[in-house]
Specification:
Layout: E1 25-29, H1 33-44, E2 48-52, H2 56-64, E3 68-69, H3 73-77, E4 82-85, H4 90-104, E5 110-113, H5 119-131, E6 135-138, E7 141-142, H6 145-150, E8 153-158, H7 161-172, E9 175-182, H8 186-215, H9 219-226, H10 234-237, H11 261-278, H12 283-300, H13 308-313
Parallel strand pairs: 1-2, 1-4, 2-3, 4-5, 5-6, 8-9
Antiparallel strand pairs: 7-8
The structure holds nicotinamide-adenine-dinucleotide.
Nicotinamide-adenine-dinucleotide binds next to α1, α4 and α11.
Length: 314
């Protein structure tokens, strides 16, 4: 595909109204459940977004919203000021950058991987980019598809200071918080450590509600006490695993929507793998991983992760 139509102003050309433009040409690779909403927020911010995805349906959603479909990842990346990837796992991200994107990137471009992947791959890619003189950050997100659509994600960013500063304005168009966590891979480190707490506290919270139930303690009463006492956590007050106390929690809609148990399992596996590599002991994380594996094996992977309470009830 021929790159950049003549009518398309480049990010460096003066706009017709004479005002300074912050518009950038952005390649967005992987416009699925998360990436689709994120790419559309970049379009809404006035950027020129070239999207590529293996799925025609995913591409159709973003082109309907004003992005341009690229014929390949290289086509999207060629001539782009910013390259964003939002792909399933580390192997997809590594293949995309090592296979094509590093070679296609302009020297001034910033490369932003928003996927949740293993720390080792994120670190290796960040270092490989730096060795080529390219600016790259790992920038995984907290927040699900609703936050991706609304532009209210939290980004945890790993990479050199200069690359972070280059990525920040783009990330701010997709999120409510952009936090620099450290060097390459540290965004992923923050993400998996956070989600390991989330998985473990959800299991502990669900266990406590089941015990309360079996002891004859009313769930609402237990919530009213524990949510104001030392047992309080985000798992209890935002995603309470039993219906009633928190009307917006997925438990009230039979665990539909929310944060899928399969994704929680993915993050717990990444955390346990990273712990093994780093020589850290994570018995609570490992126990949570085993329980989520059981939930997924029992067909619960598509349910919200608070559905672990059903497994614990037996
Ligand atoms: P998804 O499967 O909906 O989207 C991934 C997209 O990547 C798909 O459309 C797929 O076709 C595309 N893809 C795969 N390989 C490709 C390639 N080589 N080139 C181009 N496109 C390719 O997944 P998602 O829910 O959007 O998640 C994306 C990432 O975000 C994952 O790493 C996930 O762990 C993370 N994440 C998801 C959530 C969530 O709630 N869904 C929350 C936080 C983080």
């Amino acid at each position: 595909m021929t790159r950049r139509k003549a009518w398309r102003p480049s990010s460096k050309s003066a706009p017709a109204n004479g005002q300074a433009s912050n518009m950038a040409i952005i390649a967005f690779i992987g416009v699925g459940n998360m990436g689709g909403g994120m790419a559309l927020n970049l379009v809404k911010a006035g950027h020129e977004v070239w999207a590529f995805d293996l799925s025609a349906d995913a591409l159709a959603r973003v082109t309907a919203g004003g992005a341009t479909a690229a014929g390949s990842a290289v086509d999207a990346a060629t001539g782009a000021d910013v390259i964003v990837t939002m792909l399933p796992a580390g192997r997809h991200v590594r293949a995309a950058y090592e296979g094509e994107l590093f070679a296609a990137a302009q020297p001034h471009a910033v490369l932003i991987d928003c996927s949740t992947i293993d720390v080792a791959t994120a670190k290796a890619l960040g270092e490989a980019a730096a060795a080529r003189g390219l600016a790259m950050v790992d920038a995984p997100v907290s927040g699900g598809t609703a936050a991706a659509d609304a532009g209210t994600l939290t980004f945890m960013v790993g990479g050199p200071d200069a690359a972070f500063e280059q990525a920040r304005p783009v990330l701010e168009k997709m999120g409510k918080a952009v936090i620099h966590a450290g060097g390459p891979g540290m965004g992923q480190a923050a993400k998996i450590c956070n989600n390991m707490i989330l998985g473990a506290t959800m299991v502990a919270t669900a266990e406590a509600f089941v015990l309360a139930e079996k002891l004859g303690l009313d769930a609402q009463t237990f919530f009213d006490i524990s949510s104001k006492a030392s047992g309080q956590s985000w798992s209890m007050t935002s995603y309470c695993p039993v219906p009633g106390p928190v009307p917006t929690s997925p438990a009230n809609r039979d665990y539909a929507g929310g944060f899928a148990a399969a994704l929680m399992l993915k993050d717990l596996k990444l955390a346990c793998e990273a712990a093994q590599g780093a020589g850290a002991s994570v018995p609570m994380g490992a126990a949570a991983e085993a329980l989520y594996q059981l939930l997924v094996n029992n067909g619960g992977g598509g349910q919200d992760f608070s559905a672990i309470v059903k497994l614990l009830r037996g």
